[in-house]
């Protein structure tokens, strides 16, 4: 996998200075000549691969910095490395709709103002991959346009907290869970019920989104936008979704529920995945090594980044319905929900559920936590100490994250990239708005079109010039329903507006009557038609009844209760059709099928669409009046009613597991209202000359099915030619589907009498089924019928082909997953060994049909194209290092790290190569005689450079870069002719701060290199200039008086805790607070003056002694954690970790508890009814010592919008 380059150009110089590459002091002692340190760090050097650069960047971070990067929202900037604050969470399912880095839009408010296309469910009913590709090309243009610097402070943007930032380009789309049950609340986000169809249409989505060619090949080394396919996997029930398990056979898991993800990974090279809330066969998806690592990464070859769904890491340890009360094999849980503890059954070792859950999510491959609740330093240090995590696992997660960010161009010069020239002009451009209408036109499905009122022609299309009166009824016609994950487009055209515009344009004297008739999706009484409306209906030239679903019917977190028409639409249809006007159209816009058997005979025509975008009214009129010949086809089975559906939580597909019913067109045993693939046209089409290019083929072969499609109608039109594979095959112990979609093509618009010749090629290996016990794909021998037709139930003709033989396995992917990214010179890696951190963590007793003897936890794995893994102990493997001066690798697969730099370690099996990047370094340390310094007074710093490698380092040199205005002068040798293997060299330095140095934390950047080194070594030390008192660092107003609610600003957005609400909980301004055995003095609040510290690494004098130090505070924009330091009067130090949950969380996390929860908070407008909390945390002190100074964690520089901040209101020792 190629990884991309990071860090914004504007930060390069500062970052290089911080690394000691440009700002080093001149040594006072002469020495032997040395090789110059590389002028640019590897992570900024575009000559390296993106993955190599990401590995170098991650290796330079401290553990604290690494942990803070594991959150999706507002992962903090690392200024010394030139890393911007980053938010991974942006949304753009069918138009940009969520921008969590829209920090300064000026006066622009409301939802995201971007072009809103039809939902994926709706748009994919066009069956037009090119159209979807054009749509998402436009959406990604707008995503890039939102990074236009001129939008900062003037309009919505995705730049983050600084105009100088590169911006955010990871978007969480598309949703590709299958609509296997139409009651699922999120059907409108997905692409229908068939995995092949979803893979094809979502593949076009990803290709357009990421700036690739329509076939998935790259146009550039850069990603235009990073698409993230979700929700992996089996997230098809909303009710209690965070606490339920989706239980499924191993065969269905491969053949159906992950097949569309496989297609996106292999063909569209999707950049990201999102793991889901549900468990899969008892193991939480977010921590499931089988699905997330063995299947997605090692079988399907996924190499991008993986985020959790928001809060999903918490499902590992929380109790139902918030979670699964899970613990991995070998551990038990005490089932105490948010405060759960895991216990190792063999050793008695304990770890908090939050720490363990985060650890196992990282181990499985979920690289980043949305929104970061469990990703705290305290949790991960605890997990490392308990032996369930390593820093190497964290590094691997960050390698994936920073690789994808580099691929978007974040760390490269903007003038060298193809997409940075896109401007704000792309946002809601006229061309994009026209395209949204075109997609909506093609997404409409004509379900019925009978003759009406004695006319010897179908009711539609109607001639608008001949319409004197049109009556439209139903509230659906008077509003624009955009569907889930929609923005706030400037253009919104409802059905009434669309119809009115076209009728009035053709006949200005026409009368348009609209009556919502008291209808809605939630109404319980009958529809109400006025007498005038009734009269108008009787005399109308056309009547349109608008019904359907909306966000009140279903959506994220809410499944549909059933297929019955919601609200009082049935009453509306009955009343309107009872008035006897035969020229009636039923217009349905919904998120799936609704029960209409009782109404079909009452209307002449039925048109259907999913939520059809900003121009849905125009599109409806286009079809009603013939401007658009409908060509949409259903991507789902239109069931008659609930009796045709199994329980929604039943993930079985075949009849035997679903009470004889079967799911989807592949297995359904009943007769639906309309079959999968159904759709009518104003034209008619005939299929002829259907033939296969061979009568017999082996399992490795390809079959070409050719046929002609002719427009036999009287108007131009297009149709969708569909190809299904069916077989007269019986397999013992296996229920096979009746047929499967294996190809389709939308014709061009054919003039009457015109024929288009089509050939669809089918790879026989794609007809394979997974055999869980054999742990591979199998093509069954027998006779296959390749059926051609307009839908799954109608066969215009077929060709028979006999398939024989077995699949010949060929190596498809080789994956290399070592236990770490960063290694010291002299370390070894056995590529033939197992990686302990990816050991299978599923319950063997809960994996139906799976062969538990097949795992994929070796460092190197090779998988065949039939899904079978090779035994590499019996297979020739060729190993290679891209740079033997950094790492060598023996013929037996033993890597030895020898020198500084990055190396790509590859393994080749049968001509297929996989690789992993490692970063090798020697140990460099910097210390000082005193961490706390006085301005103008020199201190002694010491650098120690250790050769951990197997050979001597020639001509080594060490440098120390001090902050601007400081001096760092060596007082001993800083250059060395050689550093023998295993030896260390030490240099002392006199470091002097200016007399006018202000309080703060100042970095000493040590660097070292040697002749021939491909990269330098770096280490950072801190010198602290303390503030005069604690009062000097109390800079934020976090609490306001209810009489002046706008006087506080705890979060950069004008919100604050309420003084009165806190007092009601016993927390009184200026009063004493006893908590956790300590007595605190609460600050004086409500005056508009600062009352809390925003922890940003400040050092303050704090003289006290006791056994415990305590902190009262809170956090905003996510859980905040970091490492602080206590300096004792004897000069010794003690590091501690402080962590507070977000003030909206209202529940403790590891290492803290709740002090008080209030019912509301304040903002400039007054009270906001939302519970918020403040928390307490304690740290044990070293016995018998007196505190001299307290250095707070460096969480963030201030309280700002979308920036994590840790607030401290009181500190006490006792």
From TrEMBL:
- What keywords are assigned to this protein? Hydrolase, Signal
The entry sums up its family as follows: Belongs to the glycosyl hydrolase 3 family.
Indicate what this protein is called per its UniProt record. Beta-glucosidase
Q: Which organism is it from?
A: Actinacidiphila paucisporea
Question: What InterPro entries would the database entry show?
Answer: A-galactase_NEW3, Big_2, BXL, Fn3-like, GH, Glyco_hydro_3_C, Glyco_hydro_3_C_sf, Glyco_hydro_3_N
PANTHER family to which the protein is assigned, alphabetical: BETA-D-XYLOSIDASE 5-RELATED, SUGAR HYDROLASE-RELATED
**Where do the Fibronectin type III-like domain residues begin and end?**
719-792
Report whether Kinase shows up as a keyword of the record. Answer: no
Give a GO biological-process term.
xylan catabolic process
Q: Which Pfam families match?
A: Big_2, Fn3-like, Glyco_hydro_3, Glyco_hydro_3_C, NPCBM_assoc
Concerning SMART domains, the annotation shows: Fn3_like (SM01217)
Signal sequence coordinates: 1-30
Q: Name one GO molecular function term.
A: xylan 1,4-beta-xylosidase activity
């Amino acid at each position: 996998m190629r990884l991309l380059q990071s860090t914004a150009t504007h930060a390069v110089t500062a970052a290089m200075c911080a690394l000691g590459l440009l700002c080093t002091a001149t040594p006072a002692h002469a020495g032997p000549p040395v090789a110059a340190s590389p002028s640019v760090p590897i992570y900024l050097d575009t000559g390296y691969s993106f993955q190599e650069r990401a590995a170098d960047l991650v290796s330079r971070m401290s553990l604290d910095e690494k942990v803070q990067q594991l959150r999706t929202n507002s992962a903090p900037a690392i200024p010394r490395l030139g890393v911007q604050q980053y938010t991974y969470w942006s949304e753009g399912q069918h138009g940009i709709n969520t921008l969590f880095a829209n920090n300064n839009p000026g006066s622009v408010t409301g939802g995201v103002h971007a072009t809103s296309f039809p939902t994926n469910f709706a748009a994919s009913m066009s069956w037009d991959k090119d159209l979807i590709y054009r749509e998402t090309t436009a959406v990604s243009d707008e995503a890039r346009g939102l990074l236009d610097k001129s939008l900062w402070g003037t309009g919505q943007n995705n730049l983050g907290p600084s105009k100088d930032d590169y911006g955010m380009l990871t978007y969480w789309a598309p949703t590709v869970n299958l609509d296997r049950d139409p009651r699922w609340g999120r059907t409108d986000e997905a692409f229908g019920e068939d995995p092949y169809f979803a893979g094809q249409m979502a593949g076009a989505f990803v290709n357009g989104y990421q700036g690739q060619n329509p076939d998935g090949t790259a146009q550039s080394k850069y990603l235009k936008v990073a698409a993230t396919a979700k929700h992996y996997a089996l997230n098809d029930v909303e009710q209690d979704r965070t606490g339920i398990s989706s239980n499924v056979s191993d065969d269905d898991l491969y053949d159906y529920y992950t097949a569309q993800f496989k297609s996106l990974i292999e063909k569209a090279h999707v950049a990201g995945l999102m793991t889901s809330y549900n468990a899969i066969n008892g193991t939480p998806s977010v921590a499931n090594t089988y699905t997330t690592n063995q299947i997605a990464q090692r079988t399907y070859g996924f190499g991008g980044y993986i985020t959790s769904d928001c809060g999903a890491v918490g499902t590992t340890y929380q109790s139902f319905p918030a979670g699964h009360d899970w613990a991995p094999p070998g551990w038990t849980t005490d089932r105490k929900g948010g405060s759960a503890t895991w216990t190792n059954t063999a050793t008695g070792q304990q770890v908090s559920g939050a720490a363990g859950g985060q650890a196992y999510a990282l181990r499985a491959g979920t690289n980043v936590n949305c929104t970061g609740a469990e990703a705290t330093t305290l949790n991960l240090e605890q997990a490392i100490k308990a032996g369930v995590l390593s820093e190497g696992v964290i590094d691997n997660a960050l390698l994936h994250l920073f690789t994808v960010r580099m691929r978007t161009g974040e760390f490269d010069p903007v003038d060298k990239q193809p997409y940075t020239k896109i401007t704000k002009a792309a946002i809601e451009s006229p061309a994009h708005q026209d395209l949204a209408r075109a997609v909506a036109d093609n997404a409409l499905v004509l379900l019925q079109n009978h003759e009406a009122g004695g006319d010897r022609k179908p009711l539609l299309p109607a001639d608008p010039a001949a319409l004197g009166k049109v009556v439209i009824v139903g509230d659906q016609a008077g509003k624009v329903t955009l569907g889930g994950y929609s923005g706030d487009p400037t253009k919104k055209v409802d059905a009434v507006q669309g119809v009115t515009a076209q009728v009035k344009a053709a006949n200005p004297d026409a009368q348009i009557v609209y009556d919502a008739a008291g209808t809605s999706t939630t109404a319980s009484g009958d529809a109400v038609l006025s007498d005038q409306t009734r009269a108008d209906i009787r005399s109308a030239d056309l009547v349109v009844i608008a019904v359907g679903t909306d966000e009140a019917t279903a959506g994220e977190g809410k499944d549909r209760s059933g297929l019955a028409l919601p609200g009082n639409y049935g009453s509306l249809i009955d009343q309107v059709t009872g008035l006897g006007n035969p020229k009636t159209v039923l217009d349905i816009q919904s998120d799936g099928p609704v029960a209409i058997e009782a109404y079909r005979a009452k209307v002449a025509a039925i048109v259907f669409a999913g939520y059809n975008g900003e121009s849905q009214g125009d599109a409806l009129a286009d079809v009603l009046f013939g401007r658009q010949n409908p060509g949409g086809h259903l991507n789902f089975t239109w069931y008659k009613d609930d009796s045709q559906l199994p329980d929604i939580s039943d993930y079985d597909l075949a009849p035997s597991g679903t009470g004889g019913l079967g799911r989807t067109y592949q297995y359904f045993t009943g007769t639906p209202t309309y079959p999968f693939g159904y759709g009518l046209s104003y034209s008619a089409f005939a299929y002829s000359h259907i033939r296969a290019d061979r009568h017999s083929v082996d399992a490795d072969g390809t079959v070409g099915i050719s046929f002609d499609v002719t427009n036999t109608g009287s108007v131009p039109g297009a149709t969708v030619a569909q190809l299904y594979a069916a077989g007269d095959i019986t397999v013992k112990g296996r229920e096979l589907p009746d047929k499967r979609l294996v190809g389709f093509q939308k014709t061009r618009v054919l003039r009457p009498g015109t024929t288009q010749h089509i050939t669809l090629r089918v790879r026989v290996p794609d007809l394979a089924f997974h055999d869980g016990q054999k742990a591979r794909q199998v093509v069954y021998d027998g006779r296959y019928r390749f059926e051609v037709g307009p839908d799954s139930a109608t066969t215009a003709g077929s060709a028979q082909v006999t398939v024989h033989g077995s699949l010949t396995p060929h190596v498809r992917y080789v994956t290399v997953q070592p236990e770490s990214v960063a290694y010291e010179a002299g370390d070894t890696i056995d590529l033939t060994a197992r990686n302990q951190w990816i050991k299978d963590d599923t319950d063997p007793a809960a994996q139906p049909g799976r062969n538990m003897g097949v795992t994929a936890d070796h460092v190197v794995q090779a998988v065949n194209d039939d899904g079978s893994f090779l035994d590499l102990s019996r297979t020739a493997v060729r190993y290679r290092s891209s740079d033997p001066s950094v790492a060598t690798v023996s013929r037996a697969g033993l890597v030895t790290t020898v020198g500084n730099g990055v190396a790509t370690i590859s393994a080749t099996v049968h001509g297929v190569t996989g690789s992993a990047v490692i970063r090798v370094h020697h140990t460099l340390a910097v210390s000082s005689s005193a961490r706390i310094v006085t301005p103008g007074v020199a201190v002694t710093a010491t650098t120690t450079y250790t050769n951990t490698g197997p050979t001597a380092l020639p001509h080594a040199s060490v440098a120390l870069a001090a902050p601007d205005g400081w001096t760092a002068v060596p007082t001993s040798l800083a250059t060395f002719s050689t550093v023998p293997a295993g030896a260390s060299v030490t240099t002392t330095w006199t470091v002097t701060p200016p007399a006018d140095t202000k309080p703060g934390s100042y970095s000493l950047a040590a660097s070292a290199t040697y002749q021939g080194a491909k990269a330098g070594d770096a280490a950072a030390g801190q010198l602290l200039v303390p503030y005069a008192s604690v009062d000097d660092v109390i800079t934020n107003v976090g609490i306001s008086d209810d009489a002046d609610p706008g006087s506080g600003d705890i979060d950069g957005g004008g919100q604050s805790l309420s003084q009165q609400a806190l007092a009601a909980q016993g927390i009184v301004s200026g009063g004493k607070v006893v908590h956790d055995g300590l007595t605190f003095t609460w600050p004086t609040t409500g005056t508009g003056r600062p009352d809390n510290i925003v922890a940003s690494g400040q050092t303050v004098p704090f003289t006290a002694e006791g056994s415990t130090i305590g902190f009262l505070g809170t956090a905003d924009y996510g859980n905040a954690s970091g490492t602080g330091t206590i300096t004792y009067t004897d000069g010794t130090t003690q590091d501690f970790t402080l962590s507070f949950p977000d003030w909206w969380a209202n529940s403790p996390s590891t290492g803290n508890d709740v002090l008080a929860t209030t019912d509301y908070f304040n903002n400039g407008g007054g009270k906001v009814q939302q519970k918020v909390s403040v928390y307490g945390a304690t740290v044990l002190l070293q016995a018998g010592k007196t505190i001299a100074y307290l250095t707070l964690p460096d969480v963030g520089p201030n309280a700002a919008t979308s920036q994590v901040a840790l607030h401290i209101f009181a500190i006490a020792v006792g």
